Amino acid sequence: MFNRLFGFNRRAFSSLSEQEVLALAISSEEDDARIYRAYADGLREDYPHSAAMFEEMAEEEDSHRASLIALHRKRFGERIPLIRREHVRGYYQRRPDWLVRPLGLDHVRAQAATMEEEAQRFYTEAAKRAGDAATRKLLGDLAAAEQKHESVTEHLSEKHLGEDARQEEEHTERRQFILTYVQPGLAGLMDGSVSTLAPIFAAAFATGNTWQTFLVGLAASIGAGISMGFTEVASDDGVISGRGSPVKRGLTTGIMTTLGGLGHALPYLIPYFWTATTIAIVIVFFELWAIAYIQKRYMETPWSRAIFQVVLGGALVFGAGMLIGNA
Questions:
Q1: Is the pTM of this model over 0.70?
Q2: Residue 322 main-chain phi, psi, to 5 deg
Q3: To the nearest whole number, what is the mean pLDDT of the chain?
Q4: Are 292 and 306 in contact (CB under 8 A)?
Q5: For the packed helices 48-76 and 163-177, what is the interaxial angle rounded to 10 degrees?
Q6: Banded model confidence at residue 300, pLDDT cuts 50, 70, 90
Q7: Opening angle at CA 185, ends 102 and 221, nearest 5
Q8: Among candidates 14, 20, 121, which has minimal Cα distance to 68?
Q9: pLDDT-derived band at 52, boundaries 50, 70, 90
Q10: Which of 182, 174, 197, 176 is nearest to 253 (CA)?
Q11: Ordered alpha helix ranges (H), the chain
């Protein structure tokens, strides 16, 4: 375990022979091609243009691997040593695609650019430190190949992702983000902010006790968050509707519901009743208008409708809580 943690079972790059460096380059090209194909598979359904780009990048990696294997066969024979990135200290690492999901467009494009840049930089620096002329030439050739990969990436991006295709995929990605995060989060924030107004302010004006009011608000917020979260998970598995993972939507809804209620419950940690109540009322005002803005910004809801649904509705619930508390 300690050997794995501190890299004691890894070789220093400087200790590798030319054959081992070449074998390492071959395995690295194989891994990168697999990663690009995994990206293509993950993006194909929603982003076909980007998927085509990564498929072609994988084919480019295959061609480089074939060239490296041919060079190894010419210089060292048929048997390629088994050496991979994890066997070498300080060598750049790759994250498999299942660790970087969900595959957002910007994320995978940036990841691809980083992959090529890291490989090129590593080979360039390694070539500078190499004392043997043959090793220096080999590392320099590998650095040049990786630099060519970067220009290929840019070329493929221009080829497959014209302005129309890029706009189409960005629209799809924005829609998926809204369906998976914004819509459930907004529903939770609205429910948490509005539904807890009546019990919190009813408790505040009925008891005049800030601590008791805080406990009521805390219980109402957490209870509403749990309820809304499980309701969202159970309501739609996301397969047919395309709304994404039910767990992600449930967590988003539950957390935002809880936060919506806690926003005007936390001021009652202040022991002075009217100070706490004034701050809570101000927070409610900003909460309701923030929700209306989010509706307008992401859901394209007209201002008049957003104000009617959120601000007016919240004001009525707040008034009901005050009336009940003073009854």
A1: no
A2: -65, -45
A3: 76
A4: yes
A5: 110
A6: low
A7: 130
A8: 20
A9: confident
A10: 182
A11: 2-6, 18-43, 48-76, 105-129, 133-160, 163-177, 183-195, 197-207, 210-235, 246-262, 273-298, 303-306, 313-325
